[in-house]
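The pair is quoted verbatim below.
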Amino acid sequence: MASVDFDAWMDQCSGPGTVWYAKRLSANDTLANRTHQAGPYIPREVLFTVLPILDRPERHNPDARFPLRIDSHDGAPRMVRTIWYNNALHGGTRNEARVTGFGGRRSPLLDPENTGAVTVFAFMAGHRGTVSQCRVWVCDCEAEESLFEQRLGPLEPGRWLVWSPDATPLLTPRPASATPCRLALEDIPTAWLSAFPSGAEIVAETVKMRPEHGYGPDDRLLRRRDCEYEIFLSVEEAVEMPGIRAGFGTIDEFVSRAQSILQRRKARAGRSLELHARQIFVEEGLIEDEHFAHGADSEPGRRPDFLFPSQERYRDHSFPPDRLRMLAVKTTCRDRWRQILNEAGRIPIKHLLTVQEGVSEAQFREMKESGVRLVVPSRLRAHYPAVLRPELTSLEEFIADIRPLAGPTPGREGHATPPPS
Protein backbone atom coordinates (compact mmCIF):
# COMPACT_ATOMS: atom_id res chain seq x y z
CA MET A 1 0.00 0.00 0.00
CA ALA A 2 1.11 3.57 -0.63
CA SER A 3 2.30 5.65 2.29
CA VAL A 4 0.35 8.69 1.02
CA ASP A 5 -3.12 8.95 -0.50
CA PHE A 6 -3.68 9.93 -4.13
CA ASP A 7 -5.16 13.33 -3.34
CA ALA A 8 -2.11 14.28 -1.28
CA TRP A 9 0.17 12.83 -3.97
CA MET A 10 -1.37 15.07 -6.62
CA ASP A 11 -0.73 18.07 -4.39
CA GLN A 12 2.87 17.01 -3.83
CA CYS A 13 3.46 16.51 -7.56
CA SER A 14 1.99 19.81 -8.71
CA GLY A 15 4.99 22.02 -8.14
CA PRO A 16 6.77 24.26 -10.64
CA GLY A 17 8.67 22.44 -13.35
CA THR A 18 6.43 19.36 -13.19
CA VAL A 19 4.58 17.93 -16.18
CA TRP A 20 1.91 15.25 -15.91
CA TYR A 21 1.28 12.63 -18.58
CA ALA A 22 -1.90 10.66 -17.88
CA LYS A 23 -3.54 7.76 -19.67
CA ARG A 24 -5.48 4.56 -19.07
CA LEU A 25 -3.23 1.54 -19.34
CA SER A 26 -4.15 -0.61 -22.33
CA ALA A 27 -3.50 -4.33 -22.66
CA ASN A 28 -0.61 -3.36 -24.96
CA ASP A 29 0.89 -1.27 -22.15
CA THR A 30 0.64 -4.03 -19.56
CA LEU A 31 1.41 -7.65 -20.24
CA ALA A 32 -2.28 -8.57 -20.49
CA ASN A 33 -2.10 -9.62 -24.13
CA ARG A 34 1.50 -10.84 -23.86
CA THR A 35 2.98 -8.34 -26.27
CA HIS A 36 6.61 -7.30 -26.11
CA GLN A 37 6.07 -3.54 -25.79
CA ALA A 38 7.60 -3.79 -22.31
CA GLY A 39 5.89 -0.78 -20.81
CA PRO A 40 3.31 1.99 -21.21
CA TYR A 41 3.37 3.84 -24.49
CA ILE A 42 4.36 7.49 -24.20
CA PRO A 43 4.09 9.45 -27.47
CA ARG A 44 7.24 10.94 -28.94
CA GLU A 45 5.89 14.50 -28.72
CA VAL A 46 5.25 14.03 -25.00
CA LEU A 47 8.76 12.74 -24.37
CA PHE A 48 10.21 15.67 -26.29
CA THR A 49 8.14 18.00 -24.08
CA VAL A 50 9.36 16.56 -20.77
CA LEU A 51 12.83 15.53 -21.96
CA PRO A 52 14.10 18.05 -24.53
CA ILE A 53 17.55 16.47 -24.48
CA LEU A 54 16.06 13.52 -26.34
CA ASP A 55 15.06 15.68 -29.31
CA ARG A 56 18.36 15.44 -31.18
CA PRO A 57 17.56 14.47 -34.77
CA GLU A 58 21.20 14.79 -35.82
CA ARG A 59 22.09 11.82 -33.60
CA HIS A 60 21.20 8.24 -34.46
CA ASN A 61 18.82 6.78 -31.83
CA PRO A 62 19.53 9.28 -29.01
CA ASP A 63 18.71 8.07 -25.50
CA ALA A 64 18.53 9.28 -21.91
CA ARG A 65 17.99 7.81 -18.46
CA PHE A 66 16.12 9.06 -15.41
CA PRO A 67 14.96 7.69 -12.04
CA LEU A 68 11.34 6.56 -11.79
CA ARG A 69 9.37 5.61 -8.68
CA ILE A 70 5.85 4.15 -8.52
CA ASP A 71 4.54 5.88 -5.39
CA SER A 72 1.12 4.20 -5.47
CA HIS A 73 2.81 0.90 -4.67
CA ASP A 74 5.71 2.16 -2.56
CA GLY A 75 8.12 1.05 -5.23
CA ALA A 76 11.82 1.62 -4.98
CA PRO A 77 13.33 4.12 -7.44
CA ARG A 78 14.79 2.53 -10.56
CA MET A 79 16.58 3.92 -13.58
CA VAL A 80 14.59 3.70 -16.80
CA ARG A 81 15.83 4.37 -20.29
CA THR A 82 14.10 6.29 -23.04
CA ILE A 83 15.28 6.07 -26.62
CA TRP A 84 14.18 7.76 -29.81
CA TYR A 85 14.45 5.28 -32.65
CA ASN A 86 14.92 7.83 -35.44
CA ASN A 87 16.14 5.50 -38.18
CA ALA A 88 13.76 7.24 -40.59
CA LEU A 89 16.09 10.24 -40.43
CA HIS A 90 19.16 8.10 -41.07
CA GLY A 91 18.22 5.89 -43.99
CA GLY A 92 15.74 3.59 -42.22
CA THR A 93 11.97 3.56 -41.59
CA ARG A 94 11.46 3.58 -37.82
CA ASN A 95 10.48 6.81 -36.02
CA GLU A 96 9.21 6.20 -32.51
CA ALA A 97 10.26 6.61 -28.90
CA ARG A 98 10.16 4.01 -26.15
CA VAL A 99 10.72 3.90 -22.40
CA THR A 100 12.07 0.63 -21.04
CA GLY A 101 13.39 -0.77 -17.79
CA PHE A 102 10.19 -0.75 -15.71
CA GLY A 103 11.01 -4.06 -14.06
CA GLY A 104 9.01 -6.66 -15.96
CA ARG A 105 5.91 -8.38 -14.64
CA ARG A 106 6.74 -7.31 -11.08
CA SER A 107 6.07 -3.71 -12.04
CA PRO A 108 2.55 -2.36 -11.38
CA LEU A 109 2.81 -0.68 -14.80
CA LEU A 110 3.01 -4.09 -16.49
CA ASP A 111 0.66 -5.99 -14.20
CA PRO A 112 -2.22 -7.34 -16.35
CA GLU A 113 -4.64 -6.62 -13.48
CA ASN A 114 -3.98 -2.89 -13.92
CA THR A 115 -5.24 -2.89 -17.51
CA GLY A 116 -7.66 0.02 -17.82
CA ALA A 117 -6.32 1.88 -14.78
CA VAL A 118 -5.83 5.65 -14.85
CA THR A 119 -2.08 6.20 -14.52
CA VAL A 120 -0.27 9.49 -13.97
CA PHE A 121 3.42 10.10 -14.70
CA ALA A 122 4.71 13.24 -12.98
CA PHE A 123 7.93 14.29 -14.74
CA MET A 124 10.07 16.73 -12.76
CA ALA A 125 12.44 18.88 -14.77
CA GLY A 126 16.17 18.61 -14.25
CA HIS A 127 19.10 20.59 -15.66
CA ARG A 128 19.65 21.16 -19.38
CA GLY A 129 16.58 19.38 -20.71
CA THR A 130 16.73 16.33 -18.45
CA VAL A 131 14.26 14.75 -16.01
CA SER A 132 15.43 14.81 -12.38
CA GLN A 133 12.84 12.18 -11.43
CA CYS A 134 9.51 10.74 -12.49
CA ARG A 135 6.91 9.83 -9.90
CA VAL A 136 4.06 7.54 -10.93
CA TRP A 137 0.63 6.70 -9.56
CA VAL A 138 -1.43 3.75 -10.80
CA CYS A 139 -5.02 4.12 -9.60
CA ASP A 140 -6.34 0.93 -8.03
CA CYS A 141 -10.00 1.85 -7.58
CA GLU A 142 -12.79 3.98 -9.00
CA ALA A 143 -12.56 6.39 -6.06
CA GLU A 144 -8.99 7.33 -7.01
CA GLU A 145 -9.97 7.75 -10.65
CA SER A 146 -12.78 10.08 -9.55
CA LEU A 147 -10.24 12.22 -7.67
CA PHE A 148 -8.26 12.58 -10.89
CA GLU A 149 -11.37 13.48 -12.90
CA GLN A 150 -12.29 16.16 -10.37
CA ARG A 151 -9.04 17.92 -11.24
CA LEU A 152 -8.54 17.27 -14.94
CA GLY A 153 -11.75 15.77 -16.27
CA PRO A 154 -12.50 12.35 -17.78
CA LEU A 155 -9.78 10.24 -19.33
CA GLU A 156 -11.10 7.89 -21.99
CA PRO A 157 -9.43 4.74 -23.36
CA GLY A 158 -7.01 5.45 -26.17
CA ARG A 159 -6.63 9.13 -25.24
CA TRP A 160 -4.11 10.86 -23.05
CA LEU A 161 -3.42 14.31 -21.71
CA VAL A 162 -0.47 16.41 -20.64
CA TRP A 163 -0.86 19.04 -17.93
CA SER A 164 1.49 21.38 -16.09
CA PRO A 165 0.93 23.87 -13.26
CA ASP A 166 3.33 26.14 -15.17
CA ALA A 167 0.61 26.56 -17.83
CA THR A 168 2.54 24.56 -20.37
CA PRO A 169 0.22 24.21 -23.38
CA LEU A 170 -2.06 21.23 -22.93
CA LEU A 171 -1.34 18.39 -25.32
CA THR A 172 -4.18 16.02 -26.21
CA PRO A 173 -4.31 13.46 -28.99
CA ARG A 174 -6.56 14.33 -31.88
CA PRO A 175 -8.53 11.46 -33.39
CA ALA A 176 -6.77 10.10 -36.46
CA SER A 177 -9.15 10.94 -39.28
CA ALA A 178 -8.65 11.68 -42.95
CA THR A 179 -11.55 14.11 -42.73
CA PRO A 180 -11.32 15.98 -39.39
CA CYS A 181 -14.52 17.18 -37.76
CA ARG A 182 -13.17 20.23 -35.99
CA LEU A 183 -15.57 23.12 -36.62
CA ALA A 184 -14.52 26.65 -37.49
CA LEU A 185 -16.30 29.35 -35.50
CA GLU A 186 -18.46 30.31 -38.47
CA ASP A 187 -19.63 26.70 -38.86
CA ILE A 188 -20.93 26.40 -35.30
CA PRO A 189 -24.71 26.96 -35.03
CA THR A 190 -25.34 30.35 -33.48
CA ALA A 191 -27.66 28.90 -30.85
CA TRP A 192 -24.85 26.69 -29.56
CA LEU A 193 -22.73 29.72 -28.69
CA SER A 194 -25.34 31.03 -26.24
CA ALA A 195 -26.56 27.67 -24.89
CA PHE A 196 -24.15 24.74 -25.00
CA PRO A 197 -25.70 21.92 -27.06
CA SER A 198 -26.84 18.70 -25.45
CA GLY A 199 -25.06 15.44 -26.10
CA ALA A 200 -27.92 14.34 -28.33
CA GLU A 201 -27.61 17.51 -30.42
CA ILE A 202 -23.88 16.99 -30.94
CA VAL A 203 -24.42 13.35 -31.88
CA ALA A 204 -27.08 14.42 -34.40
CA GLU A 205 -24.63 16.90 -35.92
CA THR A 206 -21.99 14.17 -36.02
CA VAL A 207 -24.32 11.89 -37.98
CA LYS A 208 -24.97 14.70 -40.48
CA MET A 209 -21.24 15.28 -40.94
CA ARG A 210 -20.25 11.64 -40.90
CA PRO A 211 -23.09 9.39 -42.09
CA GLU A 212 -20.37 6.80 -42.77
CA HIS A 213 -22.45 4.84 -45.25
CA GLY A 214 -20.62 1.67 -46.19
CA TYR A 215 -19.17 1.10 -42.72
CA GLY A 216 -20.52 -1.61 -40.45
CA PRO A 217 -21.92 -0.82 -36.99
CA ASP A 218 -18.57 -1.28 -35.22
CA ASP A 219 -16.51 1.05 -37.41
CA ARG A 220 -19.39 3.52 -37.71
CA LEU A 221 -19.56 3.76 -33.92
CA LEU A 222 -15.84 4.39 -33.42
CA ARG A 223 -15.44 6.79 -36.33
CA ARG A 224 -18.38 8.87 -35.16
CA ARG A 225 -17.15 8.96 -31.57
CA ASP A 226 -13.86 10.42 -32.79
CA CYS A 227 -15.76 12.97 -34.86
CA GLU A 228 -18.13 13.87 -32.03
CA TYR A 229 -15.18 14.43 -29.69
CA GLU A 230 -13.69 16.96 -32.11
CA ILE A 231 -17.03 18.75 -32.51
CA PHE A 232 -17.38 18.94 -28.72
CA LEU A 233 -13.90 20.43 -28.32
CA SER A 234 -14.61 22.94 -31.09
CA VAL A 235 -17.77 24.18 -29.41
CA GLU A 236 -16.14 24.18 -25.98
CA GLU A 237 -13.31 26.38 -27.26
CA ALA A 238 -15.70 28.78 -29.00
CA VAL A 239 -17.91 29.11 -25.92
CA GLU A 240 -15.29 29.22 -23.18
CA MET A 241 -12.21 30.95 -24.62
CA PRO A 242 -13.66 34.48 -24.82
CA GLY A 243 -14.40 34.42 -21.09
CA ILE A 244 -11.03 32.87 -20.27
CA ARG A 245 -9.17 35.50 -22.31
CA ALA A 246 -11.15 38.26 -20.57
CA GLY A 247 -9.90 37.03 -17.22
CA PHE A 248 -11.61 36.64 -13.85
CA GLY A 249 -12.42 39.18 -11.18
CA THR A 250 -12.12 36.70 -8.31
CA ILE A 251 -10.70 33.27 -7.62
CA ASP A 252 -14.24 32.02 -7.00
CA GLU A 253 -15.21 33.03 -10.55
CA PHE A 254 -12.23 31.10 -11.94
CA VAL A 255 -12.99 27.99 -9.86
CA SER A 256 -16.65 28.11 -10.84
CA ARG A 257 -15.83 28.31 -14.55
CA ALA A 258 -13.29 25.48 -14.29
CA GLN A 259 -15.73 23.24 -12.43
CA SER A 260 -18.44 23.94 -15.00
CA ILE A 261 -16.11 22.91 -17.84
CA LEU A 262 -15.03 19.72 -16.04
CA GLN A 263 -18.62 18.74 -15.22
CA ARG A 264 -19.65 19.23 -18.83
CA ARG A 265 -16.76 17.05 -20.00
CA LYS A 266 -17.69 14.32 -17.54
CA ALA A 267 -21.33 14.46 -18.60
CA ARG A 268 -20.32 14.12 -22.25
CA ALA A 269 -18.01 11.19 -21.55
CA GLY A 270 -20.70 9.43 -19.55
CA ARG A 271 -23.35 9.63 -22.29
CA SER A 272 -21.48 9.67 -25.58
CA LEU A 273 -21.15 5.94 -26.19
CA GLU A 274 -24.74 5.29 -25.14
CA LEU A 275 -26.15 7.92 -27.52
CA HIS A 276 -24.08 6.63 -30.43
CA ALA A 277 -25.23 3.06 -29.73
CA ARG A 278 -28.88 4.16 -29.80
CA GLN A 279 -28.32 5.90 -33.14
CA ILE A 280 -26.75 2.74 -34.57
CA PHE A 281 -29.72 0.64 -33.45
CA VAL A 282 -32.13 3.01 -35.19
CA GLU A 283 -30.08 2.97 -38.39
CA GLU A 284 -30.00 -0.81 -38.33
CA GLY A 285 -33.78 -0.89 -38.58
CA LEU A 286 -34.60 -1.38 -34.89
CA ILE A 287 -37.57 0.73 -33.84
CA GLU A 288 -37.53 2.14 -30.32
CA ASP A 289 -40.34 0.77 -28.11
CA GLU A 290 -40.89 -2.10 -30.56
CA HIS A 291 -37.42 -3.59 -30.81
CA PHE A 292 -35.60 -1.89 -27.94
CA ALA A 293 -36.20 0.37 -24.96
CA HIS A 294 -33.67 3.06 -24.10
CA GLY A 295 -33.41 4.14 -20.47
CA ALA A 296 -36.55 2.29 -19.36
CA ASP A 297 -36.96 0.71 -15.90
CA SER A 298 -36.66 -3.05 -15.78
CA GLU A 299 -37.78 -3.07 -12.15
CA PRO A 300 -38.51 -0.08 -9.90
CA GLY A 301 -35.23 1.74 -9.35
CA ARG A 302 -33.32 -0.36 -11.89
CA ARG A 303 -32.70 1.15 -15.29
CA PRO A 304 -30.42 -0.65 -17.76
CA ASP A 305 -29.29 1.43 -20.71
CA PHE A 306 -31.10 -0.80 -23.20
CA LEU A 307 -33.73 -3.54 -22.97
CA PHE A 308 -34.57 -5.83 -25.88
CA PRO A 309 -37.06 -6.23 -27.42
CA SER A 310 -38.98 -3.74 -25.23
CA GLN A 311 -39.98 -2.81 -21.71
CA GLU A 312 -43.45 -4.22 -22.41
CA ARG A 313 -42.05 -7.62 -23.37
CA TYR A 314 -39.75 -7.59 -20.35
CA ARG A 315 -42.62 -6.99 -17.97
CA ASP A 316 -44.80 -9.61 -19.66
CA HIS A 317 -43.88 -12.70 -17.67
CA SER A 318 -45.40 -14.92 -20.34
CA PHE A 319 -42.72 -13.69 -22.74
CA PRO A 320 -39.84 -16.22 -22.75
CA PRO A 321 -36.78 -15.05 -20.79
CA ASP A 322 -34.50 -16.54 -23.43
CA ARG A 323 -35.90 -13.97 -25.87
CA LEU A 324 -34.87 -11.05 -23.62
CA ARG A 325 -31.59 -9.17 -23.69
CA MET A 326 -30.13 -6.18 -21.89
CA LEU A 327 -27.18 -4.02 -22.83
CA ALA A 328 -25.29 -1.79 -20.45
CA VAL A 329 -22.95 0.83 -21.91
CA LYS A 330 -19.77 1.86 -20.10
CA THR A 331 -16.76 3.48 -21.72
CA THR A 332 -14.52 1.65 -19.25
CA CYS A 333 -15.33 -1.55 -17.42
CA ARG A 334 -12.40 -2.28 -15.11
CA ASP A 335 -14.26 -1.34 -11.91
CA ARG A 336 -17.68 -0.50 -13.28
CA TRP A 337 -18.88 -3.83 -14.65
CA ARG A 338 -20.21 -4.95 -11.26
CA GLN A 339 -22.67 -2.05 -11.29
CA ILE A 340 -24.85 -3.83 -13.85
CA LEU A 341 -25.28 -7.14 -12.01
CA ASN A 342 -28.57 -6.20 -10.32
CA GLU A 343 -30.13 -4.74 -13.47
CA ALA A 344 -32.88 -6.63 -15.35
CA GLY A 345 -33.34 -9.55 -12.97
CA ARG A 346 -35.20 -11.66 -15.59
CA ILE A 347 -32.11 -11.68 -17.78
CA PRO A 348 -29.29 -13.83 -16.35
CA ILE A 349 -26.70 -12.88 -18.99
CA LYS A 350 -25.83 -9.17 -18.96
CA HIS A 351 -24.23 -7.72 -22.09
CA LEU A 352 -21.87 -4.78 -21.64
CA LEU A 353 -20.71 -2.53 -24.48
CA THR A 354 -17.31 -0.99 -23.77
CA VAL A 355 -14.40 0.64 -25.60
CA GLN A 356 -11.84 -0.20 -22.92
CA GLU A 357 -8.64 -1.39 -24.56
CA GLY A 358 -8.38 -4.82 -23.02
CA VAL A 359 -8.91 -6.61 -19.71
CA SER A 360 -6.85 -9.21 -17.89
CA GLU A 361 -7.69 -12.88 -18.30
CA ALA A 362 -8.48 -13.11 -14.59
CA GLN A 363 -10.92 -10.21 -14.71
CA PHE A 364 -12.57 -11.60 -17.84
CA ARG A 365 -13.12 -14.93 -16.09
CA GLU A 366 -14.66 -13.13 -13.13
CA MET A 367 -17.01 -11.24 -15.46
CA LYS A 368 -17.98 -14.44 -17.24
CA GLU A 369 -18.65 -16.29 -13.99
CA SER A 370 -20.91 -13.38 -12.95
CA GLY A 371 -22.89 -13.61 -16.19
CA VAL A 372 -21.39 -10.57 -17.95
CA ARG A 373 -20.57 -10.78 -21.65
CA LEU A 374 -18.49 -8.06 -23.28
CA VAL A 375 -19.56 -6.35 -26.50
CA VAL A 376 -16.43 -4.79 -28.01
CA PRO A 377 -16.14 -3.01 -31.39
CA SER A 378 -14.26 -5.34 -33.72
CA ARG A 379 -11.36 -2.92 -34.27
CA LEU A 380 -10.55 -3.07 -30.53
CA ARG A 381 -10.38 -6.86 -30.31
CA ALA A 382 -6.63 -6.80 -30.97
CA HIS A 383 -6.17 -5.11 -27.58
CA TYR A 384 -7.54 -8.17 -25.78
CA PRO A 385 -5.60 -11.34 -24.96
CA ALA A 386 -5.76 -13.69 -27.94
CA VAL A 387 -7.34 -16.44 -25.84
CA LEU A 388 -10.28 -14.15 -25.03
CA ARG A 389 -11.02 -12.75 -28.47
CA PRO A 390 -13.29 -15.63 -29.59
CA GLU A 391 -15.49 -14.92 -26.56
CA LEU A 392 -15.98 -11.24 -27.36
CA THR A 393 -19.11 -10.13 -29.17
CA SER A 394 -18.91 -7.35 -31.74
CA LEU A 395 -21.67 -4.76 -31.97
CA GLU A 396 -22.66 -6.16 -35.35
CA GLU A 397 -22.94 -9.67 -33.90
CA PHE A 398 -24.99 -8.37 -31.00
CA ILE A 399 -27.40 -6.63 -33.38
CA ALA A 400 -27.77 -9.85 -35.38
CA ASP A 401 -28.66 -11.66 -32.16
CA ILE A 402 -31.37 -9.20 -31.10
CA ARG A 403 -33.06 -8.70 -34.49
CA PRO A 404 -35.43 -11.69 -34.18
CA LEU A 405 -36.29 -11.18 -30.51
CA ALA A 406 -39.49 -9.21 -31.16
CA GLY A 407 -40.94 -11.85 -33.49
CA PRO A 408 -44.14 -13.71 -32.55
CA THR A 409 -43.89 -15.93 -29.50
CA PRO A 410 -44.28 -19.62 -30.42
CA GLY A 411 -47.93 -20.59 -29.90
CA ARG A 412 -49.01 -16.97 -29.50
CA GLU A 413 -49.07 -15.59 -33.03
CA GLY A 414 -49.54 -11.86 -33.24
CA HIS A 415 -48.19 -11.27 -29.75
CA ALA A 416 -45.29 -9.17 -30.99
CA THR A 417 -44.73 -6.83 -33.88
CA PRO A 418 -42.45 -8.46 -36.46
CA PRO A 419 -39.24 -6.63 -37.30
CA PRO A 420 -39.27 -4.42 -40.40
CA SER A 421 -38.42 -6.10 -43.65
Summary: The first helix runs from residue 6 to 12. Residues 409-421 have pLDDT under 50 and may be disordered. The first strand starts at residue 18 and ends at 24.
